Please model this.
Amino acid sequence: MLGIWLSCTEGFAQILAEKLVHAPPAVSAETLQQLKLESQAGEKLAVLVLGGGARNNVPEYQGPALKLVSEERLRYGVWLARQIDAPLGFSGGIGWGARNLSISEASAAKSSAQETYKLPLRWAEGQSRDTHENAQLSMAMLRADGIQTVVLVTHDLHMPRAMRAFSQANPSQMRLVAAPVGYRRDGPFDWQDWSPSEEGLPRVRYAIYEWLGQISGR
Model:
């Protein structure tokens, strides 16, 4: 009963994120300012968003669209790109578990970036099926464009695994800056963090999923 209770709480999810997954902190205001200065000084920066899924048919949009997790990442990527004066890219094809998807995540992101946020993607990598391929294909694309610094956007729990994959796919030693999104805590623990909630269960599940991905080497 205790295990069931904890598995539905955001407090336990936060402990897993810190102790097992080692999720990095959010980008600070100082880091944003430094990146903006570098961009204005001529450093070639890129903000790269990793996909987290798309849907074939979203009735309210009358067609394909990104899943909420992907849209959250894209929204933050757009905000970052504007903050630091850098171009925006997106990496995501049709994942291993989404064989029925009719378009790539990158195609859906391209439409969303243009129509919703009025910021066109400079790069749209739509062939990758997982984080490893995100890294391999995206780094080759950015390297060919002379990019020197990659600001990587994905969820906080996914970021350690993503950074490992991108570091391994980085023979030219482009600088990687982690820009995680999706933090669910905005202050110290309180009693509500230990109350079962609809947000707690998927957060715990995601933390365990990413931890298993880390120890398996994927």
In short: Residues 68-84 form the longest helix (17 residues). The beta strands are 45-50, 54-58, 63-66, 88-91, 123-125, 149-155, 175-181.
